[in-house]
Amino acid sequence: MSGFSPAFERLGAALAAVVLQQQETLAEFLPREDWSADLTARTYSSGGVTVRVSLLGSYAARERTWLWGWANPQFGADHPAVAPTLSIRVLGERLGIPEFTTPEVDLSWYEGPAGHGGELIAMAAGGVLGGGGYIGAGYDGGSAYLHVDDPQAPPAGWDPVPVPRLVSNAVSLFPREPRLTLARLLSHHTIPYRETDGRTEVLLPGGGRAHAQFDGLGRLVHWDAELSPASL
């Protein structure tokens, strides 16, 4: 494989802004200090906070490959930390996403803005599972990616102010469909919206309105949020 599949790129575009916002919320909740993990017990501890996690997979820096937890001989599909993630593979089979069904994904071709291609697979996988976000836990030779599956990890709340930044950052990673990126972020927070040619009109909670403008290439070029007094 050289390049991500169209199905993976579309899914990534749909989930990226939602995931990035949740990652910011997780960073505020979970200190990134000296950490330890017990995958059999499904726990990750850092800075005095312990959360329940599952194992998505790992990225090998030298080989530049992503290995799913269910394909890793040290774990496998029946491992307590892996079993909760198997719905990702099921979705991959249903939607034809080879990145979700290939045991070890070659990412040596990736030269994009993310640190490595495994980060984007972790983002998409974490977005499919929802929950509290994902953690990149570095080890000698690469990083393991853990999904936070713990109700104590707070969900990201709606805020119109960071929308253009979230969408812009998401599109830099998954540029395929910027309007889908915004639409999915709005839908995730159950914010009503209406799309017209090059424009998305949004009805904000409390009665305010926002307008998103896209250029001829589909890129978000303007976001204007008018909050009502009741929402302030």
TrEMBL record:
<protein>
    <submittedName>
        <fullName>Uncharacterized protein</fullName>
    </submittedName>
</protein>
<dbReference type="InterPro" id="IPR049249">
    <property type="entry name" value="DUF6882"/>
</dbReference>
<dbReference type="Pfam" id="PF21813">
    <property type="entry name" value="DUF6882"/>
</dbReference>
